[in-house]
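Tip: read the tokens left to right.
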């Protein structure tokens, strides 16, 4: 599902109206009715509520007028307020305002601080407020009268449903440009906007409902400009196909996990388990020999390969040829490898000598921190990196704070210049491709903030790459399922006590739930 900025949304409207021939008035009618449908679904007791609809002077206000009329037709107790001068309302919004008048609905004009003092408390006294003041056109922070209106509505203490975006936000940035409505629910019209899905602004969006207002899917798909998409169940489901009845393990890929060092053997185990639970046909863990027995004892299903090691228990740089010689469709390297000159040399030579797809995680990325120019993909060999914010900041030479302030921009630039796929982990994990496509993952939970969950993801990525043979698809599916498994583990174990092992145990449930083969029941149900 495409995530749009203001210019792209306006262009989608324009093409729908001018090229497809759907009148703008029809789109406004569709928008208002979809908002009503969302409100009725979320508030079954709507008939018992008094609803205040607070409208602006533009098209967002026009959507609000449609909502008011539709609710009135359903017998709902509605009050309508215009924040601004009624005589300044034009176009389709004016048409819908006049319809309200003809059916006998009073519209209260609130044009300044004085009239707000008269009606602000009245609005706050309703059981539900619908915010239809500002849509996608806002570029500067609200000030003066409008800022006061937003602040007072937020303090009302009642549920707020925002139409398209909470008033006060800009559709062009995930930052909060100023004070904004703190919505309980946001009904996004046509497509989600950046501040609805990315922090910090999305914290004010509440539950986001995407409303189909009649803009054809091909219009969204053909839009120029940044290509940022929200991963959805509908997109992910077709990537997992039923296996043939005569399938064998060789059909689902051979994954080699290069991981572990003294004291960090668990990272190799979690990575391998992530790969196995994600369907890899064969998994081999290649680790320093001193770790081999420990790793082998954790699971009977994967094979192990001992590698030459340093006196400190890390892989020796001379082991590269032994790793490359293992029959593999995908190699994933990094979890628990440790750091040091020997590891750095090993990882860099592995990148140079590996002919097949390669996933680099954790300590494998730290090997390039002082020379990121060496971390580059090449034609015919997919390269995926899976940094957390600290690792990504080291690769690009900036602070974590600067990275978090521009996650999409920095990750996109790095993926393009280095010809690789970036899976930037964290809240709303990003998948960024070498051709500048960005995917935002909505799944996951705070319980995943525990050691080892990133190791599991690295193994999942390798497994799906081995099966799908499509790096973009593998990244999208792996991060979606990783987050979904985390949510299920959280439901069973709680966000405080869940571990990376719990996440592994729920990968199968996440796959079954995605493919709709059964309903997942947690212990709490």
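Filled-in amino acids:
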């Amino acid at each position: 599902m495409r995530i749009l900025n203001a210019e792209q949304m306006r262009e989608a409207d324009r093409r729908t109206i001018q090229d497809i021939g759907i009148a703008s008035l029809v789109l406004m009618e569709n928008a208002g009715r979809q908002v009503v449908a969302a409100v009725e679904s979320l508030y079954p007791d709507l008939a018992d509520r008094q609803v205040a609809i607070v409208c602006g002077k533009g098209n967002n206000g026009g959507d609000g007028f449609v909502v008011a009329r539709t609710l009135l037709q359903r017998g709902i107790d509605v009050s309508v307020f215009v924040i601004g001068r009624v005589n300044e309302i034009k176009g389709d919004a004016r048409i819908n305002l006049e319809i309200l008048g003809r059916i006998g609905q009073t519209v209260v004009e609130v044009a300044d601080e004085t009239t707000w003092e008269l009606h602000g408390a009245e609005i706050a006294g309703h059981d539900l407020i619908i915010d239809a003041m500002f849509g996608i056109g806002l570029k500067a922070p609200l000030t003066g009268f409008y800022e006061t209106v937003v602040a007072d509505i937020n303090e009302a203490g009642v549920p707020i449903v925002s139409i398209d975006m909470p008033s006060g936000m800009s559709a062009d940035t995930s930052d909060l440009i100023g004070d904004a409505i703190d919505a309980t629910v946001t009904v996004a019209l046509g497509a989600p906007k950046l501040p609805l899905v990315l922090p910090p602004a999305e914290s004010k969006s509440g539950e986001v409902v995407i409303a189909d207002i009649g803009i054809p899917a091909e219009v969204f798909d053909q839009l120029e400009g940044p290509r940022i998409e929200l991963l959805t169940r509908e997109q992910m489901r077709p990537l997992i196909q039923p296996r043939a009845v005569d399938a064998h393990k060789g059909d689902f890929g051979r994954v080699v996990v290069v991981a572990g060092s003294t004291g960090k053997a668990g990272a190799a185990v979690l990575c391998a388990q992530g790969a196995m639970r994600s369907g890899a046909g064969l998994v081999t863990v290649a680790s320093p020999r001193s770790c081999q027995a420990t790793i082998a004892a954790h699971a009977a299903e994967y094979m192990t390969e001992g590698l030459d090691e340093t006196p400190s228990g890390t892989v020796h740089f001379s082991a590269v040829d032994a790793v490359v010689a293992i029959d593999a469709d995908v190699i994933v390297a990094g979890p628990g490898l440790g750091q040091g000159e020997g590891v750095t040399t090993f990882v860099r030579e592995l990148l140079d000598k590996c002919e097949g797809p390669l996933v680099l995680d954790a300590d494998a990325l730290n090997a390039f921190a002082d020379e990121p120019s060496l971390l580059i993909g090449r034609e015919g060999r997919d390269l995926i990196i899976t940094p957390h914010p600290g690792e990504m900041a080291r690769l690009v030479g900036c602070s974590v704070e600067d990275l978090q302030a521009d996650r999409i921009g920095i990750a996109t630039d790095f993926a393009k210049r280095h010809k690789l796929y970036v899976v930037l982990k964290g809240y709303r994990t990003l998948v960024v491709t070498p051709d500048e496509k960005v995917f935002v993952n909505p799944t996951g939970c705070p319980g995943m903030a525990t050691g080892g969950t990133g190791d599991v993801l690295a193994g999942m990525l390798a497994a799906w790459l081995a099966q799908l043979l499509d790096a973009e698809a593998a990244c999208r599916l792996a991060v979606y399922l990783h987050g979904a498994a985390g949510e299920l583990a959280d439901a069973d174990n709680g966000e405080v006590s869940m571990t990376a092992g719990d996440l592994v145990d729920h990968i199968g449930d996440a796959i079954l739930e995605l493919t709709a083969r059964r309903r997942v029941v947690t212990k709490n149900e």
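The domain at 248-514 is CATH 3.40.1190.20 (UDP-N-acetylmuramoyl-L-alanine:D-glutamate ligase). The chain has 21 helices and 18 strands.
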